[in-house]
Amino acid sequence: MRRRTMLAVFAASMLLSAAPVSAQDVSGDLVLLDWASGSEQEMIKALEDGFTKAYPNVHFKEINLTVQGDARGAIRAALQSGEKADLFINTWPAFRKELADAGLLRDLTSLWDSAKIGDNLSDSWKALGTTDGKLYGITYTYGDRSGMFYKTATMKKSGIDAQPKTWDEFVANFKKLNDAGITPIAIGAKYWSHAEWFESLYEHLNGVEKAADLAAHKIPWTDDSVKNTLRKFAEMLKAGCCGTAESMLANDWDTASDMVFVQGTAGYQIIGMWNNDRARNVDKLKEGEDYSLQQFPAMGAGHDDVSSVDSKEFSAFTDSANPAAADAFLAWVTTADAANIVARAGLASPSNKVDPSLYGPVMRIAAGAVSSSKVQFVLGDLLPGDLVDEYRVQLQKFLQDPSDATIDSVTQAIEAKAATFD
Amino acid sequence: MSEVALRGSEGSNSRVVGGAPQRTALRRWIADAPAAYLLLLPVLILFGFAVLYPLVQTIVLSLWDIKGLGKPKFIGLGNFVALVQDANFRQAATTTLLWTLCTTAISVGAGWGIALLCALAPRQTLVPRVIIFAAFGVSEAVIGYVWLQVYRGDTAGLLNAILSGAGLGNLAHAWLGDAKTAIWCLIAAYSWAQTGLPLLVIFAATQAISRNVLEAAYVDGATPMNMMRHIIAPLSMPGVRVALFINLLGSLRAFDTIYVLTGGGPVRSTETIGYFMFRESFTQFKLGYGAAATLILLAAVLIVSIPAILQRTKSTT
After folding, report:
1. Which of these, A65, A293, B176, B207, is most buried using a 10 Å CB contact count?
2. Do A76 and B68 count as a contact with CB atoms less than 8 A apart?
3. Is residue A157 within 8 Å of A183, Cβ to Cβ?
4. CB distance from A68 to chain B under 8 Å?
């Protein structure tokens, strides 16, 4: 009798688990650890609103982290201090591994299958969110990090009618911009964004495969590929690309963005696609008219079909108090409703359900560039622990003095730090 | 102890009126001790929670190798050994020394000078004193944002605009992006904000000088300069010592202004031990390493504090 009862309970539970979970079945608080800011945070709020419209019994709560520079420290501090969340936003593959190794992230591989996320996201996005064979992140946006933002009025003022396609054309334009009193490139080197130029240069000179090897420390930082890239960067600096080292080191990415979009004192900036969101929603510029995006110029080294990319994903914590709601959100965020919210905010959605007509001209350029390129994730986000800090500081030293001697010393310093992680 | 015991026996009717045998000093002390400890208890509890417990935790933490959210590994004094060998820490220690000495000397020196001038005309200088002291009341982070606008690298920066206006436009540059000027810019900003307290403390010391002394000097024909040199300045020294002590400790622990203005850069040139500790602990999340740096900073604070505390204790007993 007892055995039969147990069997009946088991059968009933199997039936319940196999039955599709309706929006009404999911309820309770869903807590998101959110470090986004400005208009990007507004987009996250819009996603939350969209989800709670579809799942009215779920109540979104946020743990907001206010951060300057790299947000990982604030996230670690929040977790160590006992903050409990169901979901969090991640953009660093190295950090994902750190959290997964610490047993804090839930494997989402079975959710991918059961919720049929593969119908909305391609396997390449699954691969991007995977660490050590397990899926930990559902990508909701991505960015082209080899695109150069520029303001059309600034180019017009400098007499640049057509955007440069080749490296030589690009460098030749430095004079035109400088003559017009405009710094050709805005680099914010106060914290981290100066590495963007090194990374796009590296990939265009050496290819994405070598960049992946460098990130994994399969080749040393003292390799000729790194030194030659820095020499090319030095050529740019000597050609008057970026103003003084002091001005670069005094600025962060947002002040560099203002130089391009608000003050019009600089020509180009390489930064993530959140800058598109910022230009539209904060600076109130008209996408494609007031400003646009130019893909990194061809360098003729046989690797011009590459693009540096980033992505942002939602991950779920193992100690989530409401895993059902977390799973429902992770599946929903790949649907057309969510993808269109992302697209309306001026960001790219990886979902194949996104309505491409919602993309503005700049986003279309970025999405086209990424889809037609061999891609490599942003190098800085792949480096473990404090290696990324050393990498950024040594690149600051290079900006102060881009000589061959400095190239030797900075590559040795990064290599010494990288060796501690082998 | 004997005074306390005596007062205790006088204040207790049962002991005197009742004609009970005289207790020994030790027995009386034991009898009085519970009351004393009861009065001290709230402070001791607070001290235990707010100081002792975190201190013990920090010491324990400093003995572990913690990287990110990975599993901690006990390494004994390994973090302290690594710190000594860490060129970045040594640079931070040198920067801390420069920073602490300069900000303390400038803020106390300026506060002292202004206080002595104000002492000559206390009523007429009330408004300037309040204005200068007000800066001390403003949060360091807010002060950082104010000075960020002063040091802006473009022509919108106040300092660059003044230089350009004065025909010295060739000196204008990105002050906070230059490793040679960033630390001095920080020192100037922090000293400006910290001048208020020395001014207040030293001015109070000058107001405690007896009028008789000043009047006697005046009657004897002392000039204002003589009175300043031989009476007001020497008698303001107790206030100067207090201000030096407070500002020295404040400078050693300074963080907010550095965080807002330079973030420790460029190339770690403005990184003090306090900032180094923050970066290692909260950006890199090497909590054990950061705790070891914290303890070294604490040792520096104690080395500075203990002689000053002992001196104050001696002068008040």
Report:
1. B176
2. yes
3. no
4. yes
Q: Would you say residue B224 has pLDDT above 60?
A: yes
Closest by CA position to A86, among listed A341, A324, A342 = A324
Q: In this predicted structure, which of A26-35, B8-17, B89-98 has the lowest mean pLDDT?
A: B8-17
B174: chain A residues, CB-CB within 8 Å: 244, 246-247, 249-251
- Phi then psi dihedrals of residue B193, to 5 deg: -70, -25
Q: Which residues in chain A are closer than 8 Å to B265, comparing Cβ atoms?
A: 190-191, 249, 393, 396
Is A118 touching B (CB cutoff 8 A)? no
Give the CA dihedral A173, A271, A386, B283, nearest 10 degrees. Answer: 130
pLDDT in tens, B143-198: 999 999 999 988 889 999 999 999 998 999 999 999 999 999 999 999 999 999 99
How far apart are alpha carbons A111 and B218 in whole angstroms?
Answer: 91
pTM: 0.83
CB contacts of B279 in chain A (<8 Å) are 389
Between helix B287-316 and helix B78-85 the angle, nearest 10°, is: 90
- Give the minimum alpha-carbon distance from A165 to chain B in angstroms, rounded to a whole number: 31
Tokens standing for residue A321: 């108090």
